[in-house]
């Protein structure tokens, strides 16, 4: 039976066909000059497609606005907006940061309009603070009518009633919720119409209820009329431009970009298609093939293992360990190519059906990372044969999930037990500094070199060095500080000024499995640009449940500005208890409570939307016992973040991701130490909810 190795190779490889993809169009909705679905400046009750992300850049008179809008759910959207108002006071420019929320609570029907409620500048300075109720109705395919009622800024022109008192004072620090003012003060009507004679061109007219009172008093706007007129042209489904006549005296213009995480730029992807499942002959047709004599032949076993190892390597998957028996096969794999673990597991299962003799019925695949298993998934081979052309949900519903601990079970052998294992990288980095009063956008570009060494399963040494080639973050204005709060983050300018070459990270980490459903991490060394120390973490997470609970304790010392091994005279013990809950359809919530870098106590709430292809969009807010006055501009820490997978843009499978964050109010309160490979993100993607929610990638 020495020829089985050759037969295995032929059976595994067979003929593969590339899986091509055709670009799907992205739907572009109409956004107003404030960056929200609307007419010209007034909002409408329309929503963008679920998951759509929009970036708009507009100029209205002398004001410039940059807005980022995300359709967080089919009904709820949020907007972050950054506005520059020139010569606002004393000849200086004013930069305003604010957030919007809007909720569509009625869909348009044949006879009824869609209806939405919106909150503008919900946690800002109140310069743009407003609330509104708005309805929109389509008449045919070309006309859309909108009518609404506005309060606050949108109730400042043509008001017909008043609901209590409203404070129109602009808050210098901002950042606090102005709940007591919602739907109070004068209320005024607004409305308009949009007409689209073609798919690319739309004309708009609106009656505005915004009197621009603050700007008019300061001589920034010459307000002559509540009527605005405009036109929008769509170059394609993702890019549009608009021009408008505003207040009877000004001209406005806007460019808008939209994309949707659900619709990759190159369609489903153009990676090579997976190998098909190889059906077994029936036992009655070929009883000899179902024999188990191969289990006693070392040459057969070696041939099978070698064929499986080679086939997996061609898929970017490393075979770590294997056990072959007469009726079952167990493999441990490390996925180095696919963002979705389900895709790597599915391709592994297909290869096993092609390589193994017919007697093997139970196939168990265990993904590992740095030698540490997170879970194992078992399939019946007959289910794989029966359901290959069904949905991924069908086969995953038949799978059995179970835990796997560190170390090899009896009978399983390492394929390549050689340690240490080394990985190196050389790349570039781009860092941003946003919202500086003198220069709203600052940045650094440079080279990053580093690597990791897995010394043994679960023990990883890693580090990186950065060299800044060009940038201007060292010119940032000094951040507001309080004498009552230690300086833990607001001296980032001093770090940028001190050196262009610095150690970014240099650490040793141990990842363990102390007991079933428990995961542990200990990390020591240079944790981040500003801090060095020791970080410990323990997390409980069942592999098939939505809830995880963890705790983290850190002892850190502040690093010298020069980026070497020197330390400053500041150390602190921080720690948090954390709860994570994975809701359906990719919605996640995280709550952290504990002690922060400045010694302050409080909590952080994070809301996140995940997509099965690796996109993530989230928002967080941190409240601690640092007062709003001591915190300074913004009153409390808050921000947005986004993760974009490289494969979404290129169409090629990749585990690379690019992360961006927007923290508009940097201060010393509510700050946490940054630690690589915190357990929840490291573990969750190998568990049942994420594998089953992978968007059908098991059969991809």
From TrEMBL:
InterPro entries attached to this UniProt entry = YbjH
The lineage's top-level taxon is: Bacteria
Region annotation (Disordered) ranges = 262-291
Q: This protein is called what?
A: YjbH domain-containing protein
